[in-house]
Amino acid sequence: MEQITGLKTSDYYFDLPQELIAQDPLEDRASSRLLVMDKETGKIEHRVFSDIKEYLKPGDTLVLNDTKVIPARLLGTKEDTGANVEILLLKRLGADRWETLVRPGKKLKPGARITFGDGSLKAVILDILDEGNRLVEFEYEGIFEEVLDRLGEMPLPPYITHKLKDRNRYQTVYARFEGSAAAPTAGLHFTNELLDEIRAMGVRTAFVTLHVGLGTFRPVKVDDVKNHHMHTEWYQVSEEAAELINRTHEEGRRVICVGTTSCRTVESASDENGIVHAGSDDTSIFIYPGYRFKVMDALITNFHLPESTLVMLVSAFAGREKVLSAYEEAIREKYRFFSFGDACFFY
C-alpha cells in the first residue's frame, strides 16, 4: 500500500510576505499572472491569465461555479446598550432565519436584539450553534434581499483591509444564484470576452452552483489533518451540466474545474465510477492527499493560505512537494496571493 505523506497541518506551512497579499483587484480581470504547472513533471511556466487559451483543447469542458456573493456583512447596534456589533450571514435555514457569525460573541447571547441602519432591519439571537455560530431571526418590511442590498456590505476575507470600490469586482462575470458568503475566486479572472474566445475554440462550459461558506477561510486547528471538521456547503448540479461532464469523459476529453468550489461540487456529485449525478445536496467533502479524484482532470485556482484546506486540496491533486515548490517560486517571482491575486493552472 502506498505511503501517504502530508497528513500533518504543519506540512502545509509556508512563509508569505505580507506585501504579496493582493488588496485590490486589477483593472483588467484577465491580466493577472498565471503560473502553469505540469503535475507529472513539475515543469513550471509563467504566463498571463488570458494565455489560458493555449492550454485548453477543443472538447475540454470548463466547470464554473455560478454562485453569487450576497452583501452578507451587517453592521448594527445592540438595542439595550448601543454597542456596535457585526453579523455575517452564513446560511439560510428558513424564511427569515440564518446561521451567522457574530462579533463580539460574548455580548450576543440568546434573546439579544440588534438594530441595523435606520431600523428597517432588526434581528434577535435565538440560539448558539456549533463552533459559536448564532441562529438569528430577522424582522423587516418588504423583501429581505432588497433590505440586505441596501444595508449589507460585501464580506471580504479578513486579510483584505482595503475597501472595495466596486462590489461587482468580488463577483464572477457569470454569477447568477445568490447565496455565497465568499466569492469562488478562481473565476474572478474570466471576462465575458475571454469566455467567448474559449468557447469559439470548441471548449465547452458547464455551470454548477456551490454556495461558498466562510469555513473556506477557517484555519485548520488540529495537528492531524484527518481530524479537521469540515463545514457543509449547499450545491446543485443541473441535468444539463451532469450530462455534459459525463459526455466529456466518454469522449476521452478533460474536465477542468475553475476553482476548488467547482472541484468539490463535481467530486461530491459523482459516484465511485466518476459518473456525475444531477441534484442538490449539502457537502462537507474534505479533499487532502490520499484522495482519488473521480471527475477533475485539471484545475484553475488561486494561491491559497498556508495550512488551509484549499492548499491541501491542491496538494492532493498535484502533489504536496510540487505545489509547495510552485508556491516558493511564485513568492520569489512576486506573484499576488489570495482572493484578488494571481492564478495557477495545474494539469
Walk me through the topology.
Layout: E1 33-37, E2 44-48, E3 61-65, E4 67-69, E5 73-78, E6 84-92, E7 97-103, E8 113-116, E9 121-128, E10 134-140, H1 144-151, E11 177-180, H2 192-200, E12 204-210, E13 233-237, H3 239-250, E14 255-258, H4 260-268, E15 279-283, E16 298-302, H5 309-318, H6 320-332, E17 343-346
Parallel strand pairs: 1-17, 3-12, 3-14, 4-11, 14-16
Antiparallel strand pairs: 1-2, 5-6, 5-8, 6-7, 7-10, 8-9, 9-10, 12-13, 13-15, 16-17
Walk me through the structure.
This protein is of the alpha/beta class and 347 residues long. The protein has two domains: 9-69 and 166-346, 3-Layer(aba) Sandwich (QueA-like), CATH 3.40.1780.10; 73-151, Thrombin, subunit H (Beta Barrel), CATH 2.40.10.240. Helix content is 18%, strand content 27%. The protein has six helices and 17 strands. The longest helix has 13 residues, at 320-332. The chain is globular. 40% of the residues are buried. The model has no long low-confidence stretch (mean pLDDT 95).
Brief write-up:
The chain has helices at 144-151, 192-200, 239-250, 260-268, 309-318, 320-332, and strands spanning 33-37, 44-48, 61-65, 67-69, 73-78, 84-92, 97-103, 113-116, 121-128, 134-140, 177-180, 204-210, 233-237, 255-258, 279-283, 298-302, 343-346. The chain has 347 residues and is α/β, with parallel strands linked by helices. The chain folds into 2 domains: 9-69 and 166-346, 3-Layer(aba) Sandwich (QueA-like); 73-151, Thrombin, subunit H (Beta Barrel), CATH 2.40.10.240.
